[in-house]
Amino acid sequence: MTIAESLSPRSLRAPESGIVEVVNYARGREGLIPLWVGEGDLPTPDFIARAASDALMRGETFYTWQRGIPELRAALSRYYARRFGISLPAEHFYVVGSGMQAIKLAIEALVSPGDDMVYLTPAWPNFAAAAELSGANPIAVPLDFANGRWQIDLARVEAAITPKTRVLFINTPSNPTGWTATRENLSDLLAMARRHGLWIMADEIYALYHYAGGRAPSFLDVMEEGDRVIFVNSFSKNWSMTGWRVGWIVAPPEMGQVIENLVQYSTSGVPQFLQQGAITALDEGDAFVQANIDKAAKNRDVFCDALIATNRVETLKPDGALYAFLKIDGVTDSRRAALDIVDRTNVGLSPGTAFGPGGELFMRACFLRDPKDILEAADRLARYIAAR
Predict the structure, then answer these.
(1) pLDDT in tens, 147-181
(2) Where is the Aminotransferase class I/classII large domain (predicted)?
(3) What are the backbone dihedrals phi and psi of residue 71, each rounded to the nearest 5 degrees, phi first?
(4) Rounded mean pLDDT, 203-224
(5) Where are the beta strands (DSSP E) in the chain?
(6) pLDDT band for position 5 (cuts 50, 70, 90)
(7) 103: left (phi over 0), alpha (psi -120 to 50) or beta
(8) How far is CA 154 from the centre of its chain?
(9) pLDDT of residue 364
(10) Which three-class secondary structure string do you get for 283-316?
(11) Using CA atoms, how far apart are residues 92 and 229, in angstroms rounded to an integer?
(12) Per-residue confidence band for 388, with pLDDT thresholds at 50, 70 and 90
């Protein structure tokens, strides 16, 4: 028996990330413009890093609260009052080791092996993989794509619901498509969940990256007390903290002990000194977040305008999130195209094959980078497309 044959079938089912495959293929090349992963090019700002560093030097290095230190949970409550106009006591917030862990723990809390979880595609691949690793069945419902824009078909979503369904996973604004649910969409989805007795898992990590102005519509705008909605989120995108691996869950206080137990038996809590940096991000980081949003908005226009002008790219400027999702004429295998593009242009894109049904013909580019890099990447890609 080989080593691989001796491992659990569940672990062997964990798929290789189609995004990471391209990253590993070209990482470290001189002159590379990496638009493949969902992060900007700025490090965490000094005022946030300094708060964590000071806490580290003060000796805040011991075991800590499984649900998050009280000061951070209170800061999250203030953040939601300011950004979402809702009063949620600190007991609704749970600090976890990244947005990814927030998703995994929420799945563990809500489903049993064999249950179905309905989600919209194209989608960030980690949700479906995490569901499968927990023994659940991710059921993909593709968004409609027409005239460069993505739309939800609510009848198709409801048709995917069966007696085995437990959760609707809704990511809006969407990675990778930029699709952003309207308030009416969210009301309809919530009504659907109520009819069928389902939970909604809401991934609103890109809520502030909403190019119509203000934040994107949220389930918090339409839900009522007693609705079964759990939110997963992260410090990664807003405050340039991707490497910190700090996230949070918003859930009914009745779930508190369950979430605490799941944290205990996975990471046993987020380091306290990192949580001190997260408090500073929430309380003092609004100007930095706005600068990131403004940069993303300008880069979105520059990048998309340049590629649309080739007349060989089908896309519209996304309504939200950080990505241009591009359908390039003649690309029928986006995995192969991503490898070819990085070889020929030294621009790193993610292949649409990584994002599930409906994404196969597309390429994803993250535009939260230095505007000079975005201009250069657009020029290289336009020349590549013209030469095909």
Answers:
(1) 888 999 999 999 999 999 999 999 999 999 999 99
(2) 33-381
(3) -65, -35
(4) 97
(5) 33-34, 93-96, 116-121, 137-142, 144-146, 149-151, 165-171, 199-203, 229-234, 247-250, 313-314, 323-328, 347-348, 350-351, 362-366
(6) confident
(7) alpha
(8) 22
(9) 97
(10) HHCHHHHHHHHHHHHHHHHHHHHHHHCCCCEECC
(11) 12
(12) confident
Residue 185's pLDDT is 98
Residue 309 structure tokens: 């002008």
Helices 99-110 + 125-133 axis angle, to 10: 40
The Cα 223–Cα 285 span in angstroms is 28
Look at the block and give the residue holding tokens 């080989």: 2
pLDDT at 17: 87
What's at 183, amino acid-wise? R
Report how far apart the first and last C-alpha atoms of the chain are (Å, whole number).
48
| Residue 87 buriedness (CB in 10 A; 0-12 / 13-18 / 19+) | exposed
Dihedral of alpha carbons 141, 145, 146, 152, sign? positive
Residue 298 has φ and ψ, to the nearest 5°, of -65, -45
Determine the Cα–Cα distance for residues 381 and 32; give it in Å rounded to an integer: 13
Judged on CB neighbours under 10 Å (0-12, 13-18, 19+), 5 is exposed
- pTM, two decimal places: 0.95
Phi, psi (degrees; rounded to nearest 5) at 142:
-65, 140
Q: How confident is the model at residue 10 (pLDDT cuts 50, 70, 90)?
A: confident
Query: How many angstroms separate the CA atoms of 210 and 208, rounded?
Result: 6
CA dihedral 22, 27, 30, 34 (to 10 degrees): 60
